[in-house]
Specification:
The structure is a homodimer. By secondary structure, chain A is of the alpha+beta class. In chain A, 39% of the residues lie in helices and 20% in strands. In chain A, the strands form three sheets. The first copy, chain A, has an eight-stranded mixed beta sheet. In chain A, strands 13-12-14-15-16 form a five-stranded mixed beta sheet, with helices on both faces. In chain A, strands 2-4-3 form a three-stranded antiparallel beta sheet. In chain A, strand 12, helix 12 and strand 13 form a beta-alpha-beta unit. In chain A, helix 8 packs across helix 9 and helix 12 crosses helix 15. Chain A starts with 17 loop residues before the first helix and ends with a helix. Chains A and B meet through helix 1, strand 1, strand 2, strand 3 and helix 4 of A and helix 1, strand 1, strand 2, strand 3 and helix 4 of B.
């Protein structure tokens, strides 16, 4: 016997069993259908880009994680997110697009991270972005948390993923705060501190701020900002236009989201949300599944002022959000939130022709398909028991037997595989029997 | 001004405008939905594989076209078809699968071909395969042309792609012919000749056969086989089990397909169909769009005896088919078969809040979404004309105006953008008005 090749997929590359794949597809479809129903167009883009295009804005870590290759004399790389390709696309097709340009994408991206549980090197990101031409009203910021809520309402009603919380902040509040305190030269360090504030005590936080050379009054102002509710913002000892614009934007976004008809409590102001360092310029948000804090943020995004600066001198502001689908699915699966369906196929009926009654079986399939009922024919030549056992293993709810007796009488045996009940029905009644 | 990067996608990588993408998605959905309705499961697999796995069976041309890369110390490559990853998958998950294993995939594959019109380096293949465990009844062969017909019936009814023909042959007929004539040592050359027979005269064909050292009687037998109808096959001067099995299989496949309720004439026996050289072992088929012979075969496939020989010693026979979606779409687009819809989005309604009537606009959106009507809100702060013009450019059929007057009276202005007719309706009537 010759040596056989290994059959394992690459480490960090998800490959599912059929019943798991059906759960995955169900989540993916809920996300895509919700995006589409809100007027977003699914745009498909290449997975490969020229390396210089992909890395124009990327920093150190991204550059190390990238999958790069050379074909002919062109240096290429696999996309590591959907935003860079979108920026190139909008700059390229600018004259042919209608703005605001609303697009979504459900597709794979690649990052050669160190392999570890729950981290994938090939993974799905499900992104929505709205790009304006020079301007984009703040109402579009408000649309994002509403859209997130629509997705997670649906995921919860269909898959019991549970309650969720969308925490919203605005980078202008943070920028305004730093401007007011005249500490913009240390904003990166302070943002990084705010980002990990949940994990440290107030004293530790103040100590760290003092180490950056901040006077006590400034540290206290920062702390009181981070502990503020939405109503308390205007009364804080922070002045300047940037902060005021931030207050008015966050008020508008929260009020709008809370008047959308979705339980208002899912939307919360959270001044500790930071989201990266230099990309976002306004509204920012994160989403947590309340029962599964260990998942981290399952959907996040925000407002940016300049999508495509490296490709065009036009101002293209936008707002977007992204769901890390592969990671979310993996976590839901490992935490037994997803109950894999016993039905492993879309087929509602398995049609079994016997005694060579093939054209009758095909007629029944045609009738069922016309009624919108997915079904398949078992063509096996073996014993009836074995052929029915296939239907059983696949969890197909109905079996239709098509033998000589059935063909002669025009009455076909249909078996409900769950209840075991058999009925004899004529062809035209089978579809409505299965539908009910 | 700093120099800006080029925004063009890579040569040979398709990137569409939104209205084109909608047409593409429509075709893709017809294909995927038809596959799914017949009990196939959409299996998603990695786009990257280990190079040795991908190239285990590939020959010279494929090896040159492959996109390869190295990450860490692993040699990787982008998949060039869906069959090799399927073979690895079935061998890997063998114990967890129920056979016959029915899977489909709609996904991208990569071949670094020389760039030319209508040839893509990144392109969609839409594959269906049914894999048996040691055995697979010939009925599954018959299922493939029936499935192709279902797809192209639907494409024609929704997109007017026109009439099509599925030409079917069986490799056992050809093998049996060569065995009977004792010319199996030259079968590759003769198959190549048969493959181009349509382009040369009978005399040229016979001359070429004679150059391979065939006696006239053998050449004439081959020619009479190639000119035979299905009924004439048994009477040909060709003997041996292989040929007889081929005759019985092709008869069964044709008769079954023709009793499926689809116009029988779309299925035709064509002894000149060859399909590659050493992969297929039984039923083989090709599909032509009759009005567009220049497209070549738009869907082809066949029966193979041994899917995964390089990974497992188990016998895994299968039958499959593949639609080259990117190429088909590109041809349909260039030949004006696809009429790009004036509607560039799924949105049926554009809701325009005025006078700060935001919560009313969100309530209307919620009602419409609950009724299954895709819609979006225009958040723009500009003049009403400009906001309506967005809806017009996107081809959104209805605009709903939500101003002070509307909110006070509870009657909202809804404008049919095609007829120009305006109605005043209360919230609960808007959804049914749009649906009708």
């Amino acid at each position: 016997m010759t040596r056989k090749l290994s059959t394992k997929p690459l480490s960090g590359f998800m490959e599912l069993l059929p019943e798991q794949q059906r759960s995955f597809n169900q989540i993916m479809n809920i996300i895509a259908d919700t995006y589409e129903s809100c007027g977003f167009i699914h745009m498909d883009q290449p997975l490969l880009e020229r390396k210089d295009v992909l890395l124009a804005k990327a920093g150190g870590e991204t550059e190390q994680q990238i999958y790069e290759l050379t074909k002919g004399d062109t240096e290429l790389a696999l996309r590591f997110d959907h935003t860079v390709p979108l920026a190139r696309y909008v700059a390229d097709k600018y004259g042919d697009l209608t703005f605001p340009f609303r697009r979504y994408v459900v597709g794979k991206v690649y990052r050669g991270e160190r392999a570890q549980a729950g981290r994938f090197r090939e993974f799905y990101q499900c992104d929505v972005d709205i790009i304006g031409n020079e301007k984009l009203a703040v109402g579009y910021d408000a649309e994002m948390p509403i859209m997130i809520a629509r997705v997670f309402e649906k995921l919860n009603s269909e898959l019991q993923t549970g309650a969720y919380k969308i925490r919203i902040n605005n980078r202008k509040l943070l920028t305004g705060l730093f401007e007011s305190l005249e500490i913009t030269d240390r904003s990166a360090e302070i943002l990084a501190l705010i980002d990990k504030k949940e994990k440290i005590s107030n004293d530790e936080f103040i100590d760290s701020l003092n180490e950056l050379g901040l006077p006590d009054t400034s540290s206290e102002t920062i702390l009181s900002f981070l502990n503020s509710s939405l109503d308390e913002l205007p009364a804080l000892p922070i002045s300047g236009e940037q902060f005021e614009v931030g207050v008015s934007e966050i008020l508008f976004v929260l009020q709008t989201a809370q008047s959308s008809g979705i339980t208002p409590e899912v939307f919360a102001f959270d001044p500790t949300i930071v989201r990266g360092l230099d990309y976002y310029t306004g509204t920012i948000f994160e989403t947590q599944l309340i029962q599964y804090p260990q998942f981290g943020s399952v959907c996040s995004g925000g407002r940016y002022d300049n999508l495509a600066g490296q490709y065009t001198s036009r101002a293209l502001p936008g707002v977007g959000m992204s769901i890390g689908l592969s990671r979310l699915f993996d976590q839901l699966l490992k935490n037994d939130v997803l109950k894999t369906s016993a039905q492993k196929t879309a087929s509602q009926a398995l049609i079994i022709p016997m005694d060579n009654k093939i054209s009758e079986a095909l007629t029944i399939q045609k009738e069922l398909l016309a009624a919108g009922i997915s079904c398949e024919i078992n063509w096996g030549a073996g014993k009836l028991d074995k052929r029915m056992s296939y239907g059983n293993k696949m969890g197909i709810p109905f079996i239709v037997l098509v033998g000589e007796q059935e063909a002669d009488s025009g009455l076909y045996t249909i078996k409900n595989m769950e209840s075991g009940i058999e009925e004899k029905l004529n062809i035209t009644d089978i579809a409505s029997y299965i539908s009910n």
